[in-house]
Amino acid sequence: MEIVDTQDLMRGAQLLPDTGEPGFGVYVHWPFCAAKCPYCDFNSHVRHQPVDQERFAAAFLKEMATMRMLSGPKTVTSVFLGGGTPSLMKPETVGAILDGIAKTWHMPDGIEITMEANPSSVEAERFRGYRAAGVNRVSMGVQALNDRDLKFLGRLHNVEDALKAIKLAREIFPRMSFDLIYARPNQTVEEWERELKEAISYAVDHLSLYQLTIEEGTPFYGLHKAGKLIVPDGDQSALLYEATQEITEREGMPAYEVSNHARPGAESRHNLTYWRYGDYAGIGPGAHGRLTQGPQKLATATERKPESWLEMVERDGHGMADQEMLGFDEQADELLLMGLRLREGVDLARWQQLSGRDPDPQREAFLLEHGFIERIGNSRLRCTPAGMLVLDSVVADLAC
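Structure (tokenized):
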């Protein structure tokens, strides 16, 4: 793969504008990490021997061909390299994957191509290599801006590493985001406000801000169950969430989704495809997909264990462990579940077309009266800030 000068790549590096349509995304899952974080329940695996990247890249391309048969011809509107830790891949591996996507579907210039990265696993030479391969947006798992909490979260980087990586990403990539986890043990609203303002000061255009959740099967779950890890209660979590909304709104990075904040025009195109209930091909170990098949939608899920997935792909052409056809009712429920996460809300006509009905008048009236939802004209329905705090309950009420 030819490595070109980064400054040449930066010229004319404007991304195509968001059309408001769901689009078609391609998600590629790189399942390997240098270490497993104690809060993480994602499909990530630590391997102490070098991973055969060429073999995995060939398997990604083989599974793409199967997904192309299922999806039919499509124009790709976004690519997301997630994990795991994709920044453990060599730039040549990333280049081979992106070249494969471009050969499998139509991939116009200027679409968003995101890669997740950890500050501890990247360096200047690799960032420039990823940019040369075609990545134009990086999403970094910073998670905290103090060394005490980084250690608690099991991160391999410190604040100094994170700030160097942020500075570097700003120089190399047209767009950059990073993640922070809040509602950490003993975290006060004042501490979080200072940390959040510091994060915004680094001139990022996108922030993903997640409350710490205790997931079953993680080390944190065992500690929490034993009473050795205490997270903020519901009232304190609500205060932290409200402070998050207030500060980001004031600083020009409002929430466009319950946990995601961006400057206007910098929203994640790929994640909008999920939330707008578009189609996407899921490739790699543990990846999920949604592919329209006539009036139905095919839900795909691949084998989670990397080595088992690899053997399946090499034998069968894909690693799909589960396929399910979703009818109108299931699609309507998923559309509601995803769309109500967005500030723009749900397209009511689309939901009515799938569900074959209007929202229950009594349930809608109750939620409107209590300030949990609101209508945007006659065409859209969305959660209010108060509704976002009880999002699961609102979705359950409307889906009945």
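The mean pLDDT is 91. The two ends are 53 Å apart (CA to CA).
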